[in-house]
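Notes to self after the Tuesday call (sharing in case useful).
The group wants a holo model before anyone commits to mutagenesis around the pocket. I volunteered. Ligand is magnesium ion. Logging inputs and output together so the record is complete.
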Amino acid sequence: MAERHRTLHDGETIHAATADAIEDAAKHLQAGELVAFPTETVYGLGADATNDEAVAAIFAAKNRPTFNPLIVHFPDHASARAAVEFSPLADELAQCFWPGALTLVLKRRADCPISLLCSAGLDTLAVRVPDHPVASALLKACGRPLAAPSANKSEEISPTTAEHVAQSLGANAPFILNGGPCGVGLESTVVDLSGDVPALLRPGGLAVEVIEPLTGPLARPENDPNAPKSPGQMTRHYAPTVALRLNAERANPGEALLAFGPDAPRRGCLNLSRKGDLTEAAGNLFAMLRILDQPGMGGIAVMPIPNKGLGIAINDRLNRAATPTQ
Ligand code: TXA
Ligand code: MG
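Result:
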């Protein structure tokens, strides 16, 4: 642990993407740390997508006040199939455009090994196979799918060089692999194939004109009220079916307790983080809500979560879940 931190913080943050540096970066990822890496579109801020706490650390580093779902990167189509359900159309798009600047939103498989935090509680997952030699080598070396949003602070523009990453993330800049400027320079095009009609969620590096011959006209939220909303104003976010009571000190009879911190009861509840760590709590949030959301349960009482750092995103999510809009 101490050794790892010494290499991380005492040396340069930006590393030329040599074979050795890629191996080193893979070890950081396997240890649950963040690594920024180049893709053909923009630089991504990567974490082991199967590690809840590592994924939560992405939101902390980006300073995101909400949990938006993240794109998960795979080395190839076959490995993506272990995480999500591919329809025949999804397979066709993957065969035509992967590796490349196309992200597909598909239903999670029942045995999907990816952190629920990557889906922000939805039953879908955004997947992509990047077309960049450094990204491919890193995915293979680390042997885990990588969750990676663009490697910038929330609300800033996406970085297309290693220097942009360092400038934007500042002290939160992790190990940065430098693979030179990104070729495409625009984020991937996001197509949602999880619903009844294929929908364009985000125009991007792969032109819609080359996708639509295969999919037919894509529904767009701005001209089709039935098209899936882009996350952010998402109404499709997972909300528990039972009532949520926030800032509770204890559970009432019939309620389950979602606890936080060392002062909570030791038994009969789930604790987001007994040591009061907000990153650990964020990593556990969606999985624990799902466990407690049982038919017949008289509600979920949630203990207060400090409203700072990742606690702001946790409280945003809990508040929205407590006041269902539909
Ligand atoms: O080019 C890219 O896509 C870059 C590189 C690093 O791969 N990544 C990127 O990630 O731009 P990010 O997190 O900045 O953007 C992810 C987009 C967001 O618009 C998000 O709302 C959407 O994908 N998204 C992710 N998962 C989703 C899901 N399950 N359902 C709907 N939209 C999803
Ligand atoms: Mg972004």
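Two things stood out.
Residues 83 and 113 are 6 Å apart (CA to CA).
Confidence is low (pLDDT under 50) at residues 1-11, 232-236.
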